[in-house]
Backbone:
């Protein structure tokens, strides 16, 4: 190419219309994809809808901004890249443009202030507490959950799984026994840390009957990944009768079963083993668990006496299996489980590990 | 032999290291005995052993540095003994051995920094590969839960404290004095000391895997009270951070003084290259913020070792206080890891687009704006922490607003490209890749600023995706861009362009394949920092793991290119990119004192396309000053186009 033709091509007005067309099309495709992808797990609270909508608004604004940057980069590479004969050529000495700079300072600023306002309104909406709240105390410890419901005469009733009535606003009071945890039911969309020393609160209103995973979202040590639980949302009538049975006692190891309708009180050791959260950390073939945080019970308890098993449950640091650390297993199972259940659990473990 | 033992070097350093451990052991045993604690019980008690380990971690490295000779000059001077006249024998590197001693030449230190931090980057990368191997399928396969927690903790700590932060300090160490026309940094001996803190910190973090009870496993955030109650491996983090932090602070002070006092005649602040502006801003951040992480880790140390109970609620401690102090550093740290990269991108885009940087002054002002705003947003890491609710709103607004100066930079870079003559070679590819990837990281950052959204995605893989788009797609892309760009200057050799492009495309594709899906699994509810996860995330995680292995392999292409080109590459001319900034006006590699004649700066650094414009000339200042070429000052005021 002759140097004159090079300069001519370089001086020609830049036709940027194809770039705009491609950018608009790409943005529309991106926004469509952003709105169609099922980003979230099932929504089960009255708070979820506002949060999900916020996300869809944010993604619809984000896509064009990214497309703008990417399109200008790609177009510049396509249109302005150095071609043979241009090795020593420089671009035009453009140092700036005040008007343009004001525009790309002011427009993003206004957009962001607008988004903050919207986010503030959403926050206000999702944190509104309703009348006639059900109050649940959530206690986190390495690596298990316990839920306390108000009972008669100011006595609380505890449950290892969370049961909630549909349609009633519930306030969680989060308390920790050791380190920081985080109480999160993805289906409800809200989470907060459980901080030792302070009561952290939040409230939600469950809207859809079902069973949902509870996740600890803050790194809490060895068994963090195993610190899971189950939240059951039930019809109000089913919840009332469940609470009556819970109050009547002996249902501390509630759970299992089909969740929504009823929760049979476990009388056998296997159900207690599952309901008390043992499966999260321990492997036990009989219970079908594969936890690796704590010792394998199939091999570790083989040939051990019932007394040893009882001691390992109520005072877990008394004997530590080589290769494992003390202070990991909760030390309060003696308080958590009624004596009858503790006995059943010990008997169960003793019998299933006897023969090997 | 005696003479060799007395001379500074690794032999004496080893001797002092042993001496240091013995002194620390004596101290611990002495104090324990004096207080009447159990010290001996058929050998040393566990508490005594841990105490000796802990005090040695603090003290022995200092003995090592004394042995190495980092303090020799100061000791001689303080003792009133004749200091060896500064004959600059400590300058320059004549053989590879010169890179393994206390060297005061900023160019040698720059190379030491870059190579050391890339070493730790490779170790950190291997740990990430192990993390991904474990996560390839649900359930536990390769490692136990505490090893897993250690893997991601050490990975993050190495990448942050021993790769991204120091590699930027290394690149700037090499090029910044050259860019401002200085013969060296303001405090060369402090500079050498700052460097030698680094390998100590890095080796300490890696060595934590050998500690009884395993490595630190509480994440790089080391939240109390998990960290104050952890096995002794945690202290390897707590103390290593002190060394890395001290290194950072000393280097930042050095940069500030160098930039303020050692600019060549005519190099006004408004004629400084943007890389210098970027490091000026970063150094301000480091000097103000880094003492806060030092404090947070000292709190942990005192709680852990001496039961000060800062974070024990039952003893009136406050758990949230740790997070406030920690993030008061660690949010600005995000900008410490980004602003120098902004500087690199500005250099490369102007040179490779053959155009002046669009809106030079706004580029500098936006850096300062980020410094200011950067200190007002820390609690956005704590929206779900249980702190007072009202703090969230102002922090949301400042966090969103910080996108404005960042946006100014992105748009100005785009405008710099417009109508330029783009040389799309390896450094430019990385710069353009950075523009796109960092935009994504910035957008997810704004999404995270929105409190209700953050409450949902905080502590999920969405966060993991976001920080990797910012620190990998952002920082690491600029690091690659900068390393390729200055490779000819640093080594005097040209790199292999073809391999450089292969490296870029492999990394670019596998990076996106690795981290983009993390947004999705995060939104679907997968928490971060877990060794095991629900079955529903299995397919994506397998895909992510496979992509990450390709990403890991792509690093080998880079490594081979660097090593082979350094050894056998064709010699580099002084100015292969036809750049205007001063570092390209001297030989590659530069002469031992950088400039044989002091340069005089007569115009802006990016006057590409301005007829007859020069940035610096090598004539005496008096002679040069009156004759400003036409148009040379145009960078100092906007011209309407």
Residues:
């Amino acid at each position: 190419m002759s140097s004159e033709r090079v300069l001519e091509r370089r001086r020609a007005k830049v036709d940027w219309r194809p770039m705009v067309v491609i950018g608009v099309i790409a943005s529309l495709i991106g926004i469509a994809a952003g709105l169609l992808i099922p980003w979230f797990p099932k929504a089960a609270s009255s708070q979820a809808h506002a949060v999900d909508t916020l996300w869809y608004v944010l993604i619809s604004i984000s896509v064009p901004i990214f497309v703008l940057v990417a399109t200008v980069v790609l177009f510049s590479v396509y249109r302005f890249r150095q071609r043979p004969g241009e090795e020593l050529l420089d671009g035009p000495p453009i140092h700036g443009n005040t008007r343009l700079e004001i525009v790309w300072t002011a427009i993003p600023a206004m957009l962001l202030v607008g988004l903050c306002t919207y986010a503030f309104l959403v926050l206000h909406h999702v944190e509104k507490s309703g009348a006639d709240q059900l109050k649940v105390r959530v206690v986190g410890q390495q690596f298990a959950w316990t839920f306390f419901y108000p009972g008669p005469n100011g006595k609380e009733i505890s449950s290892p799984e969370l049961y909630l009535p549909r349609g009633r606003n519930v306030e969680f009071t989060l308390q920790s026994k050791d380190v920081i945890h985080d109480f999160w039911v993805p289906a409800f969309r809200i989470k907060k840390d459980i901080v030792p020393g302070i009561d952290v609160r939040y409230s939600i209103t469950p809207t859809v009957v079902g069973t949902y995973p509870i996740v600890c979202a803050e790194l809490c040590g060895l068994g963090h990944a195993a610190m899971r639980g189950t939240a059951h949302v039930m019809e109000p009538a089913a919840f009332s009768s469940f609470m009556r049975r819970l109050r009547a006692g002996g249902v501390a190891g509630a759970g299992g079963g089909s969740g929504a309708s009823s929760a049979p009180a476990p009388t056998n050791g296997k159900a207690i083993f599952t309901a008390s959260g043992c499966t999260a950390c321990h492997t036990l073939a009989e219970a079908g668990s594969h936890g690796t945080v704590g010792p394998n019970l199939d091999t570790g308890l083989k040939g051990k006496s019932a007394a040893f098993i009882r001691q390992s449950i109520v005072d877990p640091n008394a004997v530590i299996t080589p290769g494992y650390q003390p202070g990991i297993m909760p030390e309060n199972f003696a308080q958590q489980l009624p004596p009858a259940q503790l006995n059943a659990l010990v008997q169960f473990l003793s019998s299933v590990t006897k023969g090997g | 032999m005696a003479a060799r033992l007395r001379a500074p070097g690794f032999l004496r350093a080893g001797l002092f290291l042993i001496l240091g451990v013995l002194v620390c052991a004596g101290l611990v045993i002495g104090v324990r005995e004096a207080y009447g604690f159990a010290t001996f019980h058929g050998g040393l008690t566990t508490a005594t052993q841990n105490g000796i380990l802990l005090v040695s971690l603090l003290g022995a490295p200092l003995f090592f540095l004394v042995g190495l000779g980092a303090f020799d000059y100061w000791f001689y001077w303080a003792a009133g003994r004749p200091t060896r006249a500064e004959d600059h024998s400590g300058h320059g590197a004549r053989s590879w051995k010169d890179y393994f001693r206390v060297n005061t030449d900023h160019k040698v230190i720059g190379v030491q920094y870059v190579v050391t931090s890339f070493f730790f980057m490779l170790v950190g990368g291997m740990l990430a590969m192990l993390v991904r191997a474990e996560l390839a399928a649900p359930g536990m396969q390769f490692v136990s839960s505490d090893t897993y927690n250690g893997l991601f903790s050490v990975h993050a700590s190495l990448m942050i404290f021993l790769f991204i932060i120091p590699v930027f300090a290394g690149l700037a160490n090499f090029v910044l004095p050259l860019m401002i026309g200085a013969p060296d940094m303001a405090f060369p001996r402090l500079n050498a000391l700052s460097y030698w803190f680094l390998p100590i910190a890095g080796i300490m973090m890696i060595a934590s895997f050998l500690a009884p009870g395993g490595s630190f496993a509480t994440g790089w955030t080391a939240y109390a009270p998990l960290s104050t109650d952890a096995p002794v491996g945690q202290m390897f983090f707590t103390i290593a951070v002190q060394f890395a932090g001290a290194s950072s602070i000393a280097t930042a002070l050095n940069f500030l003084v160098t930039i303020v006092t050692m600019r060549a005649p005519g190099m006004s602040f408004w004629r400084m290259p943007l890389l210098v502006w970027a490091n000026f801003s970063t150094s301000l951040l480091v000097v103000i913020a880094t003492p806060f992480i030092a404090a947070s880790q000292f709190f942990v140390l005192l709680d852990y070792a001496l039961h000060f109970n800062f974070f024990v609620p039952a003893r009136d401690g406050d758990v949230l206080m740790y997070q406030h102090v920690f993030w008061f550093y660690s949010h600005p740290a995000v900008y410490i890891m980004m602003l120098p990269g902004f500087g690199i991108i500005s250099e490369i885009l102007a040179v490779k687009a053959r155009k002046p940087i669009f809106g030079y002054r706004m580029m500098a002002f936006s850096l300062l704006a980020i410094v200011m705003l950067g200190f007002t947003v820390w609690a956005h890491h704590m929206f779900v922490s249980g702190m007072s609710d009202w703090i969230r709103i102002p922090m949301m607004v400042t966090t969103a607003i910080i996108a404005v100066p960042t946006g100014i930079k992105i748009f100005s870079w785009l405008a710099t490209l417009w109508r330029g003559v783009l040389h799309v070679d390896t450094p430019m590819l990385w710069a353009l890749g950075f523009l796109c990837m960092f935009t994504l990281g910035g957008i997810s950052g704004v999404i995270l600023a929105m409190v209700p959204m953050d409450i949902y995605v905080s502590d999920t893989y969405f966060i993991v995706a976001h920080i990797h788009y910012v620190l990998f797609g952002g920082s690491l892309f600029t690091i690659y861009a900068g390393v390729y760009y200055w490779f000819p200057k640093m080594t005097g050799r040209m790199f292999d362009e073809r391999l450089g492009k292969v490296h870029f495309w492999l990394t670019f594709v596998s990076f996106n394949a690795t981290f983009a899906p993390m947004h999705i699994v995060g939104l679907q509810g997968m928490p971060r920092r877990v060794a095991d996860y629900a079955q529903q995330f299995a397919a994506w995680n397998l895909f992510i793991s496979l992509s990450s292995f390709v990403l890991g392999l792509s690093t080998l292409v880079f490594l081979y290119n660097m090593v082979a080109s350094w050894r056998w590459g064709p010699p580099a001319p002084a100015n292969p990119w036809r750049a205007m900034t001063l570092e390209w006006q001297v030989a590659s590699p530069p002469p031992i004192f950088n400039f044989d004649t002091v340069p005089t700066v007569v115009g802006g650094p990016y006057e590409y396309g301005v007829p007859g414009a020069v940035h610096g000339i090598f004539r005496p200042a008096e002679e040069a000053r009156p004759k400003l070429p036409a148009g040379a000052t145009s960078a100092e005021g906007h011209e309407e186009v």
Notes: The CA atoms of residues 65 and 71 of chain B lie 7 Å apart. The longest helix of chain B spans residues 145-179. The radius of gyration of chain B is 25 Å.
